[in-house]
Amino acid sequence: MSADSLQAAVVVPACNGAEVIGTALASIATSAVACRHEVEVVVVDDASEDDTAATVRSFADGAPVPVTVVAHDRRRGTGAARNTGVAATEAECLLFLDQDDEYLPDHLGRCLDTLAALPRVDVVRTGVLLDRPVHPDWEVAIADSLTQTVAVRAWAHRLVGGFLESPAVAVVGCDDVFYNRLLRRHCRGVRVPERTVRFRSRPGNSFDRQWEAKFRRPPATAVVTLTGARLAASADAVVAFEERAREVEARVARLRGWRSAR
Predict the structure, then answer these.
(1) For strand 38-46 and strand 7-14, is the pairing parallel, antiparallel, or unpaired?
(2) For 205-233, b where at least 16 C-beta lie within 10 A, e where not — what string?
(3) Lowest-confidence range among 27-41, 47-61, 88-102, 138-152?
(4) What sign does the dihedral 102-104-194-12 (CA atoms) show?
(5) Is the Cβ–Cβ distance between 200 and 100 less than 8 Å?
(6) What is the pLDDT of residue 262?
(7) Which residue from 34, 191, 37 is spatially nearest to 126, judged by alpha carbons?
(8) Among 92, 140, 205, 250, which residue's beta carbon has the most beta carbons within 10 A?
(9) Angstrom distance (rounded) from CA 201 to CA 134
(10) Given the DSSP bridges, would you call strands 189-199 and 102-103 parallel, antiparallel or unpaired?
(11) Which residues contact residue 3 at a Cβ distance below 8 angstroms, ignoring those fewer than 6 apart?
């Protein structure tokens, strides 16, 4: 490994993803082999009821990158799974991929080369390749709300407290949106314009649920897609985010005070 190479971990939260996760893992491996950095994969099985863990272990046996599998004994949600994956690695840079999405071959190289070249940058974001056409005004907003397009230094992840794990946030499924808001607010970021992540639309997933009523329309005319339990939990999710935001603001203020006192 060269002097400016980075150690990175790709965290993959998984739940009942046996049929799709192999493609995601293969895309990580292809991208890792194509880059000059040291990459490992951490898959967190969030109490799957199918053969997700066995599928991952089978892939790991012949994988060109180290693959670790961590299991939750009960369903805790995607945000908690991502936090568990981060806790299982000592990598200096973190990336994330959902079980039904894919990295394009140059994703890891573009992200990690940028972080290596710009030591004062904390977060790199790439563009996203969408399975379905969306209104042009939504494309950047979608990319900015995803964790699949983010590479973040581990210290910046710790600064914002990782992903929210409150039950309301898990029900709404907005841990990624809140995480990105905190990163944008408190960390130095740059955007890589290339579309290096494929965001898949599959029946029932986040993209599929929002495409017809939201992403095909101009933002001003989009329809709220939260219904049922998600809608009922949304107010509590916002409260949880605001509480975390205050905690991070206080943490940042303490750091600034410590630096100015030196």
Answers:
(1) parallel
(2) bbbebbbeebbeeeeeebeeebeeebeeb
(3) 138-152
(4) positive
(5) yes
(6) 66
(7) 191
(8) 205
(9) 12
(10) antiparallel
(11) none
CA-based nearest residue to 165, from 179, 151, 183: 179
- Out of 1.10.10.10, 3.90.550.10, 3.40.50.280, 3.30.930.10, which CATH number does the structure's domain 7-255 have? 3.90.550.10
CB count, 10 Å around CB of 240? 22
Do 39 and 108 contact (CB within 8 A), yes or no? yes
Residue type, 124: V
**What is the spatial distance between Cα 85 and Cα 81, in angstroms, rounded to a whole number?**
6
In whole angstroms, give the CA distance from residue 144 to residue 91: 23
What DSSP state is assigned to residue 13?
A: E
Start-to-end CA distance of the chain, whole Å, equals: 35
Q: What are the structural domain ranges in the chain?
A: 7-255
The structure tokens listed for 156 are 């910046």
